[in-house]
Specification:
mainly alpha, Rossmann fold, 2 domains, five-stranded parallel β-sheet, 28 helices, 7 strands, globular
Length: 624
């Protein structure tokens, strides 16, 4: 009952930052329930008629899915090659290959770590759900065929329960694995499959009305009240799935009412696949140049553009493809799959040459931006440099600096290890995505503290519990002379820092240095500086292009340092002194992405840190 249009509208409105649709991402869960219903119903109908054919089933899937996805990949590639920087273009080419063989869910899960890029610069991220569906199409017909003469319903219920339990158990270990992978989504397809197995003809109208009301409330509450911090998939998404499954199952007479609203919803339903395909690349390419939160005008423009592109894709590709007759074109239909894969492989192999052909500038700004290394490789490089310096310098390490925090602590620790390799200081790293807090200083539940954390794993209350409990004892084990806090500070954590610092100072007798947040340059230096012509303009534009609210935590951190007898250094003063940001350092960029230092930046900004009065005081001026 209009579940399809509700699903696609929910997803699009959520992605386009429309207020109120905090759980709009659950639209993909609705799609999974619908697919479970339709595929199970069609397979069983054909099995009953003894007309089911595996080859025809998969040919229908190819005809239904590949033409539109192929067109989307081609158009996205054309735009990507024109506007994406080299590093992001390489990521795009990899993800396109994964999407072409419907394993992009596995690909995006495999790269979801510290070295991963922001979601908003991944034009094909949305294809993860299409890959989950395709994996369902590969497995489900085999199961339905094998159990057709047996108890299919029992099989479906068993799979649903097993999948749901697995999702709940796995979420505590890896929310990303649970989110992206088919086994933990199978229960959502199973709910739809059950709706096709249970007859509803005996329901009276008043029972239908009650079920309709409860189902609409369940679906609405899920879409409007769920947030990204909620556990999903699992028990939290089950009410939505049951609501959608019930709406499909009861087949309420209201579904046949015709008016302006239902006509609109029917049209949106027809365009749902095309609309889903085009909306995310459109948003990503728009955000490439306009990374700020969307205004009302921009939201309207994106919605209108999505509708127009969906109409074009539906009428020129999707609809004509569906009219192709199997009797005369089986080979042509089959070839759509390898052609799509072939295109993606060719693009992957040639995207570097195409990029250099379109961007021939080998001396100016483009060359500087193209030379920005990938973060993982850059970290490996400076780590090797640190090992080399330490091997050459045999000075005995008698004092210890411990850097605590997240990935920004990693940057600072490598910086200090490199710069202090020939001194008496050993630099240790204590890094975690959890806030650098001692459990005794946290006066709220971990669930509340981390409910809006950017990493799904950390939102699990159990994930950080051990880290906080052992925070001070682990630090004490290093016998530190100086503890440096380097963190992408979250506002909810700041109220607990003072207690942690006091505890660290009392139990370790170490000095404490608090570093502010790194200046942030969204969405990526490659994009921010792409349009300028002269390298000397980079540092000027960096000041105006930085995230203006990035210093919000600095005053509170400075106050905490003063209250606890510690030291504070603003990273903005290291990177952006005197209303000018030093991003270009001897012809190379000081950042690898919008917020992390490159190896060049680590050496440069680290030297400035060592020269600050606060750092010198913290080490009793023992560093020359």
């Amino acid at each position: 009952m209009y579940s399809g249009p509700i699903a696609v509208l929910s997803v699009i409105l959520f992605h386009f930052e429309v207020k109120g649709f905090s759980g709009g991402f659950l639209g993909v869960d609705i799609f999974f329930v619908i697919s479970g219903y339709l595929i199970t119903l069609h397979i069983n109908e054909q099995l009953e008629q003894e007309s089911f054919s595996f080859s025809m089933f998969y040919l229908r899937r190819v005809r239904r899915l590949f033409p539109a996805i192929f067109a989307t990949l081609v158009l996205s590639s054309l735009v990507a090659i024109l506007i994406l920087p080299r590093q992001l273009l390489s990521d795009f080419a990899e993800s396109q290959m994964a999407a072409s063989i419907y394993v992009s869910n596995i690909y995006f899960y495999s790269v979801a770590d510290y070295f991963d890029t922001e979601n908003i610069v991944k034009p094909l991220l949305h294809t993860w759900s299409l890959s989950v569906e395709e994996q369902f199409y590969l497995i489900w017909p085999l199961l339905m065929y094998a159990f057709f003469r047996l108890n299919q319903t029992l099989l479906i219920v068993g799979m649903a329960v097993a999948s749901l339990l697995a999702a709940e158990l796995m979420f505590s270990r890896s929310p990303s694995a649970t989110f992206y992978n088919f086994p933990f989504r199978a229960f959502e397809f199973a709910v739809g499959a059950l709706a096709s197995r249970v007859p509803s003809q005996t329901l009276s109208i008043w029972k239908m009305n009650v079920l309709l009301t409860l189902s609409v409330l369940s679906v609405s509450a899920s879409i409007f009240l769920t947030t990204e911090s909620s556990r999903n998939p699992g028990l939290n998404s089950l009410p939505l799935c049951l609501g959608v499954g019930t709406l499909i199952w009861i087949s309420h007479p209201l579904a046949n009412v015709k008016n302006t609203l239902t006509t609109f919803l029917v049209r949106i339903g027809l365009l749902s696949y095309s609309g889903y395909l085009v909306h995310w690349p459109l948003l990503v390419f728009f955000k490439t140049y306009y990374p700020d939160p969307l205004s009302a005008v921009e939201i309207f423009a994106l919605l209108l553009s999505t509708y127009i592109l969906a109409e074009v894709l539906f009428n020129t590709v999707e609809k004509p493809a569906l009219s192709i007759k199997f009797s005369e074109n089986r080979l042509k239909i089959f070839l759509l799959a390898p052609i799509t894969v072939f295109f993606s492989v060719v693009f992957y192999l040639s995207h570097g040459k195409l990029y250099r052909l379109i961007n021939p500038d080998s001396q100016g700004v483009q060359a500087i931006l193209d030379a920005i290394p990938e973060r993982k490789a850059d970290l490996e490089q400076i780590s090797q440099e640190v090992k080399g310096k330490l091997a050459r310098n045999k000075m005995r390490k008698t004092r210890t600096i411990v850097v605590v925090g997240d990935s920004h602590a990693l940057d600072v620790s490598l910086s200090l290890q490199y710069l202090l390799a020939d001194t008496e200081y050993a630099v240790k790293l204590m890094s975690s995505p959890c806030d650098p807090l001692a459990s005794e200083s946290i006066d709220q539940s971990l669930e509340d503290l981390y409910q809006n954390h950017g990493q799904a794993e950390v939102r699990n209350p159990v994930y950080c519990e051990k880290y906080h409990d052992s925070f001070v004892s682990v630090l004490t084990g290093y016998s530190p002379d100086l503890v440096v806090f380097s963190e992408d500070w979250r506002i909810p954590a700041l109220s607990h820092i003072s207690g942690t610092v006091s505890q660290v100072k009392s139990q370790t007798a170490a000095e404490v240095l608090l570093l502010g947040r790194n200046p942030i340059f969204p969405p990526h230096p490659n994009i921010l500086f792409k349009s300028i012509e002269r390298p000397e303009e980079i540092n000027e534009l960096a000041w105006s292009g930085r995230y203006k609210k990035g210093q919000a935590a600095d005053p509170q951190l400075a106050e905490i340092a003063s209250e606890t007898g510690s030291y504070f250094v603003s990273k903005h003063q290291l990177v952006c002194p005197s209303e000018r940001c030093t991003m270009l350092i001897d012809g190379k960029m000081g950042y690898v992405d919008m917020g992390h230092w490159s190896s060049v930046g680590m050496k440069y900004y680290g030297k400035i840190l060592l020269r600050t009065a606060e750092f010198k005081c913290a080490v009793s001026d023992r560093i020359p």
